[in-house]
């Protein structure tokens, strides 16, 4: 598979580190799955090459107040909306990798919750001089005090077909935050989650995306050489068991996540080719 990369502009953030086995072991044990020995499963790069900022750089909500990406204004609340990840080749454990990240684009819109700023962060990870992963992550910033998006009506879960279930409680959310170096307080501080308009702790959007990728890895032929596009459509809130099911065309083409009440919170589409919109 070949892919055309985009030259990063001045100001892009570069990180380099060895893809050590320990973070993969930690993630595998958190998800109750086998520990990879030689290569990382797709999407497991999210526990590597992290921005490990000083405490003084964090705002009241736990997010950095500067850097890449920086919030477009003070007092805005951040939501993870989705993204697209093309896995050209898997990252090899024990070898050095380089990540370059930069803000690719921003836009302003008005949604049901009020004014919104959309920001797309582009990341390219290379290993051995070759691009391995190209990713675009979409973030949304909204004004404090705006209405919090809610899910739709519960869906009826099909009786057959592959699925994954994952029980998430306070300890699980804390461990995933620690593993991804995510200090956003909505995931571990009930008081702060309430202040942001959520009735409980918020289940990480990247965790839901990771579980959809796991369904493709375990039951859908994998994601190497493909683009994994995902979208978070509603917050998942509270201690519960989430369910990952195949999309309409099967686990090899996409997936969806239902919360404990059966409401759709995320969906994905997997296809050959470069990073595309979903």
Can you walk me through this structure?
- A 10-stranded antiparallel sheet has the order 1-3-4-5-2-7-10-9-8-6.
- The chain has helices spanning 21-31, 170-179, 190-195, 205-219; strands spanning 13-18, 76-87, 96-111, 114-127, 130-143, 164-168, 226-232, 240-247, 250-258, 264-272.
- By secondary structure, the chain is an alpha+beta fold.
- The chain is 15% helix and 36% strand.
- β4 (114-127) and β5 (130-143) form a beta hairpin.
- The model has no long low-confidence stretch (mean pLDDT 89).
- The radius of gyration is 18 Å and the shape is globular.
- α1 packs antiparallel against α2 (170-179).
- The longest helix has 15 residues, at 205-219.
- It starts with 12 loop residues before the first strand and ends in a 6-residue tail after the last strand.
- It has a single domain, classed as Roll (Thiol Ester Dehydrase, Chain A).
- It comes from Phytohabitans suffuscus.
- This is Mesaconyl-C(4)-CoA hydratase.
Question: Gist?
Answer:
15% of the residues lie in helices and 36% in strands. With 278 residues, it is an alpha+beta fold.
- Note the gap between the termini: 21 Å
Helix content: 10-25%
What is the correct CATH architecture?
Roll
Could you state the CATH homologous superfamily?
Answer: Hotdog Thioesterase
Mean pLDDT: 89
Assembly state:
single chain
Low-confidence stretches: none
Annotation field: number of helices: 4
Write down the overall geometry: globular
* CATH topology name: Thiol Ester Dehydrase, Chain A
The secondary structure category is alpha+beta
Number of strands: 10
- Biggest sheet, open or closed, and with what strands and sense? 10 strands, antiparallel
- Integer-rounded radius of gyration: 18 Å
Organism: Phytohabitans suffuscus
GO molecular function: (3R)-hydroxyacyl-[acyl-carrier-protein] dehydratase activity
Protein name: Mesaconyl-C(4)-CoA hydratase
């Amino acid at each position: 598979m070949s892919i055309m990369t985009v030259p990063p502009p001045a100001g892009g953030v570069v990180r380099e580190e060895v893809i050590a086995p320990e973070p993969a072991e930690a993630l595998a044990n958190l998800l109750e799955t086998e520990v990879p020995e030689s290569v990382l499963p797709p999407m497991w790069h999210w526990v590597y090459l992290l921005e490990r900022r000083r405490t003084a750089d964090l705002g009241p909500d736990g997010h950095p107040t500067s850097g890449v990406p920086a919030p477009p204004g003070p007092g805005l609340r951040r939501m993870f909306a989705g993204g697209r990840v093309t896995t050209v080749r898997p990252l090899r454990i024990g070898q050095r990798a380089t990540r370059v990240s930069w803000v690719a684009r921003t836009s302003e819109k008005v949604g049901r919750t009020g004014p919104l700023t959309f920001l797309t962060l582009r990341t390219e990870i290379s290993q051995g001089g070759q691009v391995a992963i190209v990713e675009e992550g979409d973030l949304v910033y909204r004004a404090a005090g705006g209405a919090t998006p809610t899910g739709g009506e519960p869906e009826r879960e099909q009786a057959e077909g592959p699925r994954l279930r994952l029980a998430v409680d306070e300890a699980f959310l804390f461990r995933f935050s620690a593993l991804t170096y995510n200090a956003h307080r909505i995931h571990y501080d009930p008081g702060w989650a309430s202040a942001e308009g959520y009735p409980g702790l918020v289940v990480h959007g990247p965790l839901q995306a990771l579980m959809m990728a796991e369904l493709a890895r375990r039951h859908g032929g994998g994601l190497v050489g493909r683009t994994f596009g995902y979208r978070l459509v509603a917050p998942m809130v509270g201690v519960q068991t989430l369910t990952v099911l195949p999309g309409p065309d099967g686990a090899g083409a996409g997936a969806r996540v239902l919360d404990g009440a059966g409401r759709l919170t995320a969906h994905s589409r997997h296809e050959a080719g470069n990073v595309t919109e979903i």
